[in-house]
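Forum: Protein Structure Q&A
Topic: Joint prediction for protein chains with partners

I've read a bunch of threads here and the consensus seems to be that you should model interacting components together rather than docking separate models afterwards. I'd like to see that in practice. Below is the full input, 674 residues plus whatever partners are listed. Could one of the regulars post the assembled result?
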Amino acid sequence: MMAMGDNGAATIRDVAKLAGVAVSTASRALGGGSASSRTRAKVQEAARQLNFVPNQSARRLTGRRSGVVALVVDESTNALFQDDFISALLGQLGVSLAGAGLLPFLVLAPPDDAEGFRELLGRSEADGVIVASMHEGHHLAGMLEHLDRPVVFIGRPPGKIKCPYVDVDNYGGGYLAGRRLLERGCRRMAVIEGPKDMPTPYDRTAGFTDALAEEGLEPVMKISGSYDMEHGLAAMAAVLEAVPDVDGVFAHSDKIAAGALRVLHQEGRRVPEDVAIIGFDDLQAARLLTPQLTTLAQPLPDMAQAATEMLEHRLEHGEWKVSAQRFPVHLTVRDSA
Amino acid sequence: MMAMGDNGAATIRDVAKLAGVAVSTASRALGGGSASSRTRAKVQEAARQLNFVPNQSARRLTGRRSGVVALVVDESTNALFQDDFISALLGQLGVSLAGAGLLPFLVLAPPDDAEGFRELLGRSEADGVIVASMHEGHHLAGMLEHLDRPVVFIGRPPGKIKCPYVDVDNYGGGYLAGRRLLERGCRRMAVIEGPKDMPTPYDRTAGFTDALAEEGLEPVMKISGSYDMEHGLAAMAAVLEAVPDVDGVFAHSDKIAAGALRVLHQEGRRVPEDVAIIGFDDLQAARLLTPQLTTLAQPLPDMAQAATEMLEHRLEHGEWKVSAQRFPVHLTVRDSA
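Posted by a regular:
Agreed with the consensus. Here's the joint model:
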């Protein structure tokens, strides 16, 4: 007999074990996420055998919990959906939570409508909250601190807030970018950075710089700005002006890389033969560009799954199992470097 | 004295009138959407003068209405957020609804969890529902038909459902694409179409074909498939094989156009000099590509605002003012055609 959850009901872990797949895979397959039809069938069969019914109200009725989880993003609604990274993250959270039998909802009101948010949160009887923003957000901070239910952050929360969180290794991503360009034979590498006053760009450049230092090199130029394509256009032009024989670029976002690619194309430089470029994020656009972008992918499914499991454990056992988890980023090698 | 809403409170229309801007502009400025800082200041000043407080619970407390509106998408959660078009539409709906003092929320559960959805809808006390999906969706259809609150569709609802909706003129978009390529001097134009069994691609190709017919021409080739880049890659290669001197391409999506661009680049064809390309959707990626994509933009802010106003009118007056609205698509001219 397999181990079962507290109340004898099968958990997603039981299903994954029986199906012989990872918990995140089982969760995806049951939550409507991407999975091969063979995997989905296997997981569904295991769920059937164990009488696991994630997406109906069965699990929600097994306690005094509502089974509802609210997702919060500290961004204007417009910015939220224009940011491919955050919207992809929300999608993954939806899949992970639904796969765990939880019912996620997202309040689409400006974050400064804290009153409206609190109202809907109360009415929904949400058991917990996941804050899905990588930015330093302060609007909702006050409210979240005094919330009477558990909160998990995606990304390290702003300084004063003590909440469990999941995060990625930006330093490690920068280091991988540096190693990749070195291995390609690049010697004169520039960094087109994100905003100067945020920790993420700082960490990415630090990792990149340390990789170069191992070969006795340092970046020939660093230019900080926004994560947008416009910054990539202006910065790449400035780099070519100052260092005409630049042979490698580490862009802190795929959008920056798209701008840099255009300038190089217009100047007749071949990518990756003359100048190799690595981006960051692995947005949909990274595949659409020509050449397809080599970039650092954040493990959104793993991050979403981890946040879900942290919250689930807290709801089931009344205490946190871990208070922070950091995930590596992966180098997705395509054609630009 | 200005005309005021039913209960004497200023409406968004009053604010827009006083500020001398369109209702949609006022709504965007107050809802956290894009607006110049000058416009935002003007609208905020008008809102202050009229004591219009959209984003706090003031308006929600003026009746027995909850002020909550649920957004529904008949897609797997994952697909929802991988589709830039739908996620941009949701963002605009969030902005329009918040600008009208409504509190929008999105259920992030697979659409076949109708029970969970109904549960959360009931608990939220939502006044109404907006269904934001351009696809033929059937999973939620049964539930939506028997819902005890008003529903507005974005996109014409599936055959049997009689609900008010807003839609776009796909035929007109195809016609604009044809005119544009003809004006550029193209004579041998191919269409890389979306799925064969859906009305949208049919209408787009019909408009395109009619534009060409005015000059006594017809498409040299039509290839249908998915809206994805892979279809663009395969279809563009097939077109070059069959019609080597093709000089224009109408792609039914920006992703298809991205695939076609890559094939043309690899074959050494210059865009737009040798082959001009027009896409459809105006996704973020359209600006990131080189050359930047000329494409047909769907007026998402207008569609979102219209759906919001239809629902608002129904909630305030107990009856529908209009039952369907169709919006033109606009040709966004960039570098590819």
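Residues 170-297 of chain A form a domain with the Rossmann fold fold (CATH 3.40.50.2300).
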